[in-house]
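Lab notebook page, bench 4
Experiment: in silico fold of construct C2
Operator: M.H.
Input chain length: 307 residues
Purpose: comparison with the prior construct
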Amino acid sequence: MGYVVTALPAYTKQDAKKLLNEQLFSEVPTLKYMQIRPGIKSSETLDIVATEGVWQAAACSFSASGDSTFSRRTITVGKVMINQKWCESDLEPYFLQEEMKAGGSYDSLTFNEKIIGETMGNARKRLETAIWQGDLQSTDAYLKHFDGIIDVCDAATLGGTYSGTAWSQANSRTVMTGLAALVIANNNINQEDVKFFMKPAMVQQYIWKLMSDNLGFAGAYNQEGVKIHVEGTSIEIIPTPGLTGFATDRIYAVEPNNLYFGTDMTGEWEDYKIWFSDDNQELRFMSRFKAGFQTPFPSRIYDYRGV
């Protein structure tokens, strides 16, 4: 005689304490390079004045020459809301019950830290993408609320666009130096103030190209806190997650003080509310924020659009 276990399923250890969640964004990377414009409920103008006095030969006379020209560009913010709900009783039949509070009154979220942490991490990730790829004509739930940098720049007259070379690892140095040359040719732009925003994958291809050409430059990329620049220039390269997934390979040469992010209250994209609804006997989550983009001086932006 012995154990008869044929009616039992194979054992799989389950531990609610070790519930995993994906590691997501702890910040919105592009926001740290932007000018935050708070207090916008729907839209607000960026009012601009441009003035230059014309040089004349000095004389005992007065002849005015030069204009002060006013213009404006408008930041329109999208109003975003995230709603979620949970019925804690749904966990009771499963191993997850091990972490539930005693009794049948559940007025707190059992896996609060993991669920809220991932919810907010995903919100940061989506906001980073929307800042770049937002499009009011889109049907995508995450992109349709406001026009992002790509859409605004595509509709504007920029300082210049580098074209004629398809992006690849082999061509990456040609593209990078070609776009840099456009920026440097503009006497009104200091290259030390300009940053190249591009997909992390494109940055990596550029680094590999530098390595394959034995330029002895890319090793610094692995050192924490070391900035990477376009070869032979002081233009910093910014790996930009918000450009990942866009249909074409884009690079934007921009002075950060030319990027404006509109919102109602600084940091409101980090705020949320969670409460227990007695009427519905469920926990509810809500986050609301406003977001929008505008550049006051599109003529100071240069780009590469993949061809």
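Observations: Residues 29-52+65-100+107-304 form a domain with the Major capsid protein gp5 fold fold (CATH 3.30.2400.10). The first strand starts at residue 35 and ends at 37.
Next step: discuss at group meeting.
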